[in-house]
Amino acid sequence: MSSDTAKRHAYESETHYFGMWTFLASEVLFFGGLFLAYGIYRSHYPDAFAEASGHLKMGLGALNTFILLGSSLTMALAVGAARESGKVRPWLAATIVLGIVFLGIKFTEWGLEAHENLVPNASFEFDGPHAPQARLFFVLYFAMTGLHALHMTAGIVFLSWLWFRTPHRDDLSHPVEITGLYWHFVDIIWVFLFPLLYLVS
């Protein structure tokens, strides 16, 4: 590889890293607005939010937390393998599978909540004096977990694209590392979402 080519690759790599960090910074602001709104309303209606949180499926939420922590590990191993020109595809595949399992459990949980009429629509049912505030809790819950699931889906798409491209590229370290940054960001968001939504009481 010539010096000019090496410089061009280094410049492209720095540009890609800068672009991803800029994107993640904008996502922090976006999620930060939701977290701020949640924090304000939770401070105003602590009893209602605690009561509403008790209707969530704690076991499924905890299971998904462990699954995402596992996916962070497999993603880190994929990055390490890419840096050493090792076998990246098995770790990418493991991360994709764990992401799909997470979404499957999340959709199952949403289905159970819909069956209990906890979706904040016209058929919303919640017994007790805190029904209006509980509706607000579930609005924030579905908005935050839904946005997170959307980001998870995008991450799975990126990882799948990398998995298919792996046999056709010699240097995958930069694309895998950049995608890894995004994946770890999505995992960190869930680490904050789980205690905020499931451990209110």
TrEMBL record:
Main location: membrane
Ranges where the Heme-copper oxidase subunit III family profile domain occurs: 18-201
SUPFAM superfamilies in UniProt: Cytochrome c oxidase subunit III-like
Intracellular or extracellular location(s): Cell membrane; Membrane
Key word Membrane present: yes
Transmembrane intervals: 20-41, 62-82, 88-105, 136-161, 181-200
Pfam family, one: COX3
Family, per entry: Belongs to the cytochrome c oxidase subunit 3 family.
Protein name: Cytochrome c oxidase subunit 3
Name of the gene: ctaE
